[in-house]
């Protein structure tokens, strides 16, 4: 047993750090001592219980109702609000879409209206469930959804309208009240994706209403494994009332076994993540979460102000939560090289490619662990920009970029893709180069469809 755990620890040593605030994507660190141990102990107590049947495991039913009640209280739910604990934000968004679709069997070719900044989970839902996505351009300066354009996009096929609180890419909160009002006027559901901000924004000053208290908002999602600082694998999808939730459920008695009855896309669900989330929520409490939220909001404010003082950088939009998108405002360096330089200094910042009015940028997810350590991050970011300026912009032969930009993913063979992956430094064993600026420059030159296909091929190579 000791040898197995030692091997696992050795494998984990090669991962990005999950604590300390140096991984500014994917992970959320409260910096509260003992919280991980509490969550792990609670997870172990319930990991063998199965959420498939709440009558067989009534403890899980109690835990889920407690967690949903806590989320509803925070996010403007009335006495009739109901919800479901899911495996994460993507599943919460998927279920919101399928519930909206199945509540309207009269619509033969359903669609959903969403800002172009909406999370890719909604495009995944469109792909899975046959609901046509209707992306609407956002304000090119603020990156907030345009309520008038959103309202104009609603038609007789629309079953759902989506808004973000905040959007992931830029950390800005969409104007939910007018968007929800337009949906309500047309008799259409409105979902607010608060997966990132739901546990923080209620404590922020000056935020426009965005939750279930807003007329017309019918559902909202919030992830517990983000700013509730619970272990991975828990999110909550809230509906304003039980009638709205009913079409989310799936039941099938059309086979000789037990009648399958599911509240989520999963059937068997370990009770471990739910128990861990319940324990963390109980331990931290409302006052503790308010303190954590204020701490991370202040840290994001300090970092935003510090970044604006770094020559060559600017923050996109007007972020109101804990996410920052940082771009270059000069052409003598590129942000992909800055990302490499930050990685060399033991920081991970997430590159984001240009899309519409949004230029290539670096995404920073600020957590409570960054509070008090902002100066070190800013100093290293300033040094990384200086190093990127000294190195100059990434140089790739123009004919190579033109060739990549012209490729049609539908006509390329697996051999062609293998050659492209190898040229980008992404082939062979699946081990990426230490510096990714050239790879990211080539990917940036590719169309979104080609980039998707290249990365799918790369993912397949990793799992071979």
UniProtKB/TrEMBL annotation:
Gene Ontology MF annotations: aromatic-L-amino-acid decarboxylase activity; pyridoxal phosphate binding; transaminase activity
Alphabetical list of Pfam families matching this protein: Pyridoxal_deC
Keywords, ordered alphabetically: Aminotransferase, Lyase, Pyridoxal phosphate, Transferase
GO BP: carboxylic acid metabolic process
Cofactors required: pyridoxal 5'-phosphate
List of residues that carry N6-(pyridoxal phosphate)lysine: 226
Domain of life: Bacteria
Family: Belongs to the group II decarboxylase family. Sphingosine-1-phosphate lyase subfamily.
Protein name from the UniProt record: Aspartate aminotransferase family protein
Protein species of origin: Saccharothrix syringae (Nocardiopsis syringae)
Lineage: Bacteria, Bacillati, Actinomycetota, Actinomycetes, Pseudonocardiales
